[in-house]
Amino acid sequence: MKKLSYPKNKIKVLLLEKIDKVALNIFKKEGYNVECYDGSLNERELIKRIKNISILGIRSKTKISDKVIKSANKLLAVGAFCIGTNQININACNNSGVVIFNAPYSNTRSVVEIVIAQIINLLRKIIIKSNKMHSGEWRKDSIDSFEIRGKTIGIVGYGNIGSQLSIICEALGMKVLYYDIVEKLSIGNAKKCKSLNELLKTSDIVSLHVDGRKSNSNLIGVKEFKLMKKKSILINYSRGNIVDIKSLIQNIKKQKILGAALDVFPEEPSNNNDNFISKIRGVEEIILSPHIGGSTKEAQKNIGNYVPYKVIDFINTGNTSNSVNFPKLALPEQTKSHRLIHIHKNEPGVMLEINKVISKYNINIKGQYLKTNDNIGYVITDIDSIYNKKVVNSLKSISATIKLRVLY
Ligand code: NAI
Known about the structure:
Layout: E1 12-15, H1 21-29, E2 33-36, H2 43-49, E3 55-58, H3 66-71, E4 77-80, H4 90-96, E5 99-101, H5 108-124, H6 126-134, E6 152-156, H7 160-171, E7 175-179, E8 191-192, H8 196-202, E9 205-208, H9 222-227, E10 232-236, H10 245-253, E11 257-262, E12 286-288, H11 297-317, E13 337-345, H12 350-360, E14 365-372, E15 376-384, H13 390-396, E16 401-407
Helix pairs in contact: 1-11, 5-7
């Protein structure tokens, strides 16, 4: 068994926001000291609790501010047991050499399944008819009711969710168009559109699966609704600010758009006790769901399983290949050597300084791996296990050093 530079039971893990028990068990099995808390913590509480914590697990509600990171004297990694990382001050983590891992694929399938359900719901008016029956009205008709077979779906954003949706839609007999700002390989018979406009003009169903970058705000507004086909439908299970809600309501009222399904909103209640306040309320052609696209038991288990292993691998080997903010480095196994993990500000000349120190102490390098991104330089140096331990302090004293860890 590989021995760590630091006894495992001294690695303290704090898991917030009811992270699935599967994660707790994985960390415990690894020998870490794990503490759990059901809710999220505010900045003040977190500053108190984060002292001596090496691994912090959060979901979407806990905000990791610069102040929190600065108070974290031992923090090595943040596990975001969710998809998004907007709640984390990534710059602050970079500056302190804290690596972030999230679970980008764990609820992909959950979103895809509910999107399919909503397309069928909308094309058959199931929710409207159901609501009418609950108030005693019987509406047996086929007005504006359609099969999905043969319809054209236009998928905007062909990432994890968009591309998986593409496969299922095709299996259901739909024609698939997609548009992405990045070159994406078409899956199956899906056809790439050259522009968003082209997709909007030709799709019966437009489904939005873009990420939350600033420029995507109001991606679908007055101009885009004009381009959409008459009686088409719109699905937004991505981010709340992507669709201009006022325009959507207008287009539904004048029956240009047959219906829409929304799971995300410009303003969402922060918890289940708050009211949902929106102009959309009462527009029966819009199916609403409370940001639950990815909320399934399976997804929570997947996330609980995925994040801890990425964090543990980073602690044990320095592997950052699935991290959010670090240069991505997948490393070979460490054999009969010690591993110096050096995190530094990405400035010119740091490698030279590191290697000067190593050569000053006459240390034999068995392997050296470097990756940088705009902010961070990440160098792993495997060295013979017998060496002058003063090298560690010398490396720490290089001015650009953010953090140094030794694995043995
Ligand atoms: P991803 O990052 O794998 O894919 C996003 C894709 O959108 C990328 O290929 C990107 O190049 C593309 N893109 C960005 N801006 C674009 C634009 N203006 N036009 C065309 N393409 C554009 O993300 P993933 O995992 O597929 O998630 C998609 C969205 O779904 C994200 O916004 C995510 O936050 C959201 N989501 C919502 C959930 C829910 O509960 N409703 C659950 C999981 C994810």
